[in-house]
Write a structure and sequence with these properties.
SH3 type barrels, GMP Synthetase, Chain A, domain 3, alpha+beta, three-stranded mixed sheet, single chain, 2 domains
Length: 156
């Protein structure tokens, strides 16, 4: 088993008990030092206090674990806006956000995510004040991600 998978197996229960999801674990060795990066996420955006609590728990587990015998730096982060939407909870968290979808035929659709179910997503695109509805089935989605909004209106 790869080191990143072993680390993930060791820390996943603590992350989940804290109410979060372990998205991924990355390891790198720049020079003679190891960096362990744990990407966690929640149902809502994570606060700095929440990340600090989970970081301490992960650190305690890794300090006691035989997996890492040399010095290491632990980084705990949350996924950025560029993270692809691949799981239902990613879509739930981003309901009402603008989503850009690349379809299997490489065409693109974007709009505000208004609803979704196990099979499809409904996006509303604002074209100069005219609203256009797009229904996209997940089987047709090659990639989907959140678009950055600088003028987000909370009254949606």
């Amino acid at each position: 088993m790869a080191l990143k998978d072993s680390i993930a197996d060791a820390i996943r229960p603590a992350v989940e008990n804290a109410g979060f999801f372990l998205e991924d674990v990355f390891t790198s060795n720049p020079g003679n030092h190891r960096i362990v990066t744990c990407m966690i996420d929640g149902v809502a955006p994570l606060s700095l206090d929440e990340v600090t609590v989970v970081s301490r728990e992960i650190s305690a587990i890794l300090d006691e674990s035989p997996l890492l015998t040399e010095a290491f730096t632990l980084e705990v982060t949350s996924p950025g806006i560029e993270r692809p939407l691949t799981l239902p909870r990613h879509w739930t968290k981003n309901l009402t956000r603008i989503i850009k979808i690349t379809l299997n035929d490489d065409s693109e659709v974007s709009g505000r995510l208004t609803e979704f179910d196990e099979v499809r997503a409904i996006l509303i695109e604002n074209i100069k004040g005219r609203m256009k509805t797009h229904e996209v089935t997940f089987a047709d989605v090659k990639r989907a991600h959140v678009e950055v909004e600088f003028n987000r209106k909370d009254e949606i």
